[in-house]
C-alpha cells in the first residue's frame, strides 16, 4: 500500500526528537491512530488546510492540526474524552488532553488506585500548604506513642518526621509496649524502626539487609514479635506485602538430594515482599559435615538473602549458642547477612506473675478475695516454668480444670473465681502431665 512520503517524513522527524513535548505526542498519536491506521492518510500529504469530514463530503486531501477541524477528526480518538472547547488553539488542545487524563485518573483513583502508574499517582499528591516540626527525643516505644497521641496527621501539612507511618503502625506499637518485660528487645526494635522509618537504609542502587535474629528460649514471644515486625514494615511500605510465613526444618528440607533446593526456593518465592520466619533455625544445620541436605538448604537461603534483600525479610529464632555453633557455623556467609540481633531475655518471677494475672483478667476470670497469687509463689516454682509464656498458658488451663472440680455442685457465684487451692491443683496437674518432669534437655547444654 502506498503511503505519503510527506507523512513518512513527519514520522521520521518525530522519531528523531529527544525532548518531545506532551502536545507533540498527543498530536502524533492521534494522527496515527485516527488517520493512518484507519486508512485516512495513506494517500495524502500532511500539510496545508483540510476540508471537513462529513458523511456527505469527500475525504480531505490535506490535514491541518492547528485548526478546529482537528477536533472533528478526533471524534473517535482515545484522547477525545472531554467536551469541545469554545475555541481551539494549541493551548486548548493541551488543556483538553490533560482534562481527559485527569478524568481517567480520577476514575481509577476512585475504584482501583493500584492500577495507576507511580508517576501518575505522584502527580495527584496532595499539595502541602503548611509545615509543622515535631521536636522530641525518642528513647522508648512509649515516646513514639506519645508523638502519635499528641499529633493528629493531616494530609495538607508537611512534617519533619514520617508521622503518617507512625499513625499506620499505632496498633503494632501498642502491642509491643504492652508486652511484659523484654526491655532489651524493645530497645532493639526501636533502633531498627527509627532507622527504617527515616529511609536511612536506602542507598543509591540498593538497601541494607533487614534480616533479623531473635535470640531466646521457647515461650518468650518470638513468633508474636516477628509477626508484629512484619506488620509494621508492611504498613510503612518497607515491605510490599503483609505476608508472614512461619517454617521449620520440615518445610525446607526434602528427603532426596536435589529436591531441597527446589523446596527451599519455593518457600522463599512465596515470601517475597513479606516475612519468612524460621523457628528453631539451628535445626537447619547438622553437626555432621556429610549432611548435604542441610548444606543445600543453607546455600539457597544464603544466596536469597542477598538477591532479595530489597524485597524480603528473613527472621530466625533460637538460642544464641545453638545458632552460633550450628546455623552460622554451617555457612559463613549467613553471619554477615543477619545484621539485626534481638535478645528475648528470660522472664523474672515478677514478670511471670504479671503475665499470669494478665491472662486471668483477659479471660474474664478473677481471684477470690485474699487468694490472689503472689510473686513468692512463682519464685518458689520458677524452675518448673522453663517455657515461660507457654507454661503460663498451661498453668492457667490446668488451674481452671482444678477450679471446675472444686466448684462442681456449688452456687454459680463461685465460678470463675480462682483460689490458692485451684492454683496449686493446676500446678500439680501441669507437672503430672509432662512426659519429662525433669529440667528439659536442650541442645545448648552441649556447649555450656
From TrEMBL:
<dbReference type="InterPro" id="IPR027417">
    <property type="entry name" value="P-loop_NTPase"/>
</dbReference>
<dbReference type="InterPro" id="IPR050773">
    <property type="entry name" value="CbxX/CfxQ_RuBisCO_ESX"/>
</dbReference>
<dbReference type="InterPro" id="IPR000641">
    <property type="entry name" value="CbxX/CfxQ"/>
</dbReference>
<dbReference type="InterPro" id="IPR003959">
    <property type="entry name" value="ATPase_AAA_core"/>
</dbReference>
<keyword id="KW-0547">Nucleotide-binding</keyword>
<dbReference type="Pfam" id="PF00004">
    <property type="entry name" value="AAA"/>
</dbReference>
<dbReference type="GO" id="GO:0016887">
    <property type="term" value="F:ATP hydrolysis activity"/>
</dbReference>
<keyword id="KW-0067">ATP-binding</keyword>
<protein>
    <recommendedName>
        <fullName>AAA+ ATPase domain-containing protein</fullName>
    </recommendedName>
</protein>
<feature type="domain" description="AAA+ ATPase">
    <location>
        <begin position="208"/>
        <end position="327"/>
    </location>
</feature>
<dbReference type="InterPro" id="IPR003593">
    <property type="entry name" value="AAA+_ATPase"/>
</dbReference>
<dbReference type="GO" id="GO:0005524">
    <property type="term" value="F:ATP binding"/>
</dbReference>
<comment type="similarity">
    <text>Belongs to the CbxX/CfxQ family.</text>
</comment>
Amino acid at each position: 500500500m502506498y503511503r505519503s512520503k510527506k507523512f513518512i517524513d513527519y514520522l521520521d522527524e518525530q522519531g528523531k526528537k529527544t525532548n518531545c513535548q506532551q502536545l507533540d505526542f498527543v498530536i502524533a498519536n492521534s494522527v496515527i491512530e485516527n488517520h493512518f491506521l484507519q486508512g485516512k492518510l495513506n494517500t495524502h500529504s500532511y500539510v496545508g488546510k483540510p476540508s471537513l469530514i462529513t458523511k456527505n463530503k469527500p475525504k480531505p486531501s490535506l490535514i491541518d492540526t492547528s485548526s478546529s477541524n482537528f477536533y472533528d477528526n478526533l471524534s473517535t480518538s482515545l484522547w477525545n474524552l472531554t467536551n469541545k472547547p469554545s475555541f481551539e488553539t494549541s493551548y486548548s488542545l493541551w488543556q483538553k488532553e490533560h482534562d481527559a487524563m485527569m478524568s481517567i485518573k480520577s476514575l481509577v483513583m476512585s475504584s482501583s488506585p493500584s492500577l495507576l502508574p507511580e508517576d501518575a499517582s505522584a502527580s495527584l499528591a496532595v499539595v502541602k500548604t503548611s509545615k509543622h516540626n515535631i521536636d522530641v527525643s525518642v528513647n522508648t516505644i512509649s515516646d513514639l506513642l506519645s508523638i502519635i497521641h499528641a499529633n493528629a496527621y493531616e494530609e495538607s501539612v508537611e512534617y519533619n518526621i514520617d508521622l503518617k507511618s507512625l499513625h499506620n503502625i499505632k496498633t503494632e506499637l501498642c502491642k509491643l509496649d504492652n508486652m511484659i518485660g523484654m526491655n532489651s528487645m524493645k530497645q532493639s526494635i526501636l533502633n531498627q524502626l527509627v532507622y527504617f522509618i527515616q529511609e536511612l537504609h536506602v542507598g543509591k542502587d540498593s538497601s541494607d539487609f533487614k534480616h533479623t535474629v531473635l535470640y531466646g528460649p521457647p515461650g518468650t514471644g518470638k513468633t508474636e514479635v516477628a509477626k508484629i515486625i512484619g506488620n509494621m514494615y508492611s504498613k510503612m511500605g518497607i515491605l510490599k506485602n503483609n505476608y508472614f510465613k512461619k517454617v521449620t526444618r520440615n518445610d525446607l528440607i526434602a528427603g532426596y538430594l536435589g529436591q531441597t533446593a527446589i523446596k527451599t526456593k519455593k518457600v522463599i518465592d512465596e515470601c517475597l515482599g513479606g516475612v519468612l520466619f524460621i523457628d528453631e533455625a539451628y535445626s537447619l544445620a547438622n553437626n555432621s559435615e556429610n549432611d548435604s541436605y542441610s548444606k543445600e538448604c543453607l546455600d539457597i537461603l544464603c544466596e536469597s538473602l542477598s538477591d532479595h534483600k530489597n524485597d524480603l525479610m528473613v527472621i530466625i529464632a533460637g538460642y544464641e549458642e545453638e545458632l552460633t555453633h550450628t546455623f552460622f557455623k554451617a555457612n559463613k556467609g549467613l553471619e554477615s547477612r543477619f545484621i539485626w540481633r534481638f535478645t528475648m531475655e528470660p522472664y523474672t518471677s515478677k514478670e511471670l506473675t504479671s503475665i499470669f494475672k494478665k491472662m486471668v483478667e483477659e479471660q474474664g476470670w478473677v481471684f477470690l478475695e485474699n487468694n490472689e497469687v503472689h510473686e513468692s509463689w512463682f519464685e518458689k516454682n520458677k524452675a518448673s516454668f522453663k517455657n515461660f509464656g507457654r507454661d503460663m498458658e498451661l498453668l492457667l488451663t490446668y488451674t481452671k480444670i482444678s477450679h471446675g472440680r472444686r466448684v462442681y455442685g456449688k452456687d454459680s457465684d463461685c465460678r470463675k473465681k480462682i483460689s490458692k487451692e485451684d492454683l496449686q491443683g493446676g500446678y500439680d496437674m501441669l507437672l503430672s502431665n509432662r512426659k519429662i518432669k525433669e529440667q528439659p534437655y536442650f541442645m545448648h547444654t552441649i556447649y555450656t
